[in-house]
Amino acid sequence: MLSIIGLITIVVIVALLISGKVSPIVGLVLVPVAGAFAAGFGFDEIGVFFTEGTTKVASVAIMFIFAILFFGIMQDVGLFDPLINKMIAISRGNVIAVAVATVIIAAIAHLDGSGASTFLITIPALLPLYKRLKMNPYLLLMLVGTAASIMNMVPWAGPLGRTASVLDVDVTELWRPLIQIQVIGLILLIIIAVALGYREKRLIAKKSAIGVSHGNEISDATIAEAQMAATVAEVNDLKRPKLLWLNAILAIAVIGVLVWGIIPAGFAFMIGVSIALPLNFPKVKDQMERIKEHAPGGIMMATIILAAGSFLGILNGTNMLTSIATDLVTVLPEFVAPYLHIIIGVFGVPFDLLLSTDAYYFALLPIIDQVALTFGIPSLSTAYAMIIGNIIGTFVSPLSPALWLALGLAGLEMGKHIRYSFMMMWGLSIVLLIIAVLLGVIVI
After folding, report:
1. What pLDDT, on a 0 to 100 scale, did the predictor assign at position 329?
2. Model pTM greater than 0.90?
3. For 305-348, how does the pLDDT look when each residue is reduced to its tens digit (9 = 90+)?
């Protein structure tokens, strides 16, 4: 009976998250409470479960708030603009170079972990180049989305924060083994960009004789237009070009401390924000404006993490997850159960079309983890399999709000984007999954 109640609770939450008819907070808070009541638990016990669950994820919520503030400020002051503009200028209209530059620019732009800001920076900046060269705009969206997905493994982005809250582990410790996967993933994506650039060059040449003679040229005016578009989303008076190197040193120091792990991630970003604000905005009024500008994103993510802590606290406290895993092991074929985390990882990208990020990490991951534990698979191994297998498909899913923004900016269609990008993204995710197994990041 406990397993049935637990499954119903999870299914209802997943359905609500997919439907988008209620906010994640509503589903993650009210449905588990109703499930706990149905299982015979009272207010006092549920209160204890809530406290235990939210206590475990409090540090993750703090990290999100200050990480989003920090990288938001860094983008405001124009820290990443020179790199992005330089990459646009270097490419100078060579189709292959533009494809490679797209990957690098998107990776840099996604350092803040925000899909929306990444698309706001990259799509307006690069779309004029793609149109002038008659390159397929869906290639632009695919390369930006995939690069952003690989970078989305950083601890201040959503998936790792959700995973850390589910497993009750330090998010920085969770990230370290994934750094090598990110580097390999970006290298592979650059190789893919070169290959697709060659293909695009041939397609352009086939479409018209003009494309053969002019397909690799672009005017300085167009480059200037693209460079101007790169900063459309920014407010000019926030730029601090004279403080560029100081901001760069600060950003490198914060990320370095984060990788080193000498202090908690939330504390590192808190210190970074405390230095960045007076450094760039001496007036208190201006400092408060920057906080007001970026706080909504941080608060929203923090509230979801805390609501998820309540949800997981109740499911763990009532032993629903343990009961589900125990019963599931008896139902699954013996040869399948020990490899369930790998199987889920392999189908991670297709799951992105069916499950929201919240549903995947807050509802599916706990169950798979409990099953894998019964076969001696470490929780971290299960987490890495599910993260690597799923995260590449983040921006091919219609459940991603940032993707709809990107489609609107580029004037493209969701269905065509899925048809163009899905198989490449899925294939890359499987390759990275295999590499993670070979490197020992994932245990079979």
Report:
1. 63
2. no
3. 788 888 888 988 898 877 876 676 667 777 787 888 899 899 98
- The pLDDT, as a whole number, for residue 354 is 67
Distance CA 218, CA 2 (A): 65
| Lookup: tokens for 412 | 């493209």
Nearest Cα residue to 171 out of 184, 186, 158: 158
Rg (CA), the chain: 23
DSSP string, 251-282: HHHHHHHHHHTSS-HHHHHHHHHHHHHHHH--
Query: CA dist 39 to 179, 260, 263, 325, Å?
Result: 42, 44, 41, 17
Q: Lowest-confidence range among 19-33, 240-254, 262-276, 418-432?
A: 19-33
Burial environment of residue 438 by CB neighbours within 10 A (0 to 12, 13 to 18, 19 or more): exposed
- Residue at token pair 């149109």: 131
CA–CA dist 414, 404 (Å, integer):
8
294: Cα separation from own chain's centroid: 18
User: Residue type at 119?
Assistant: F
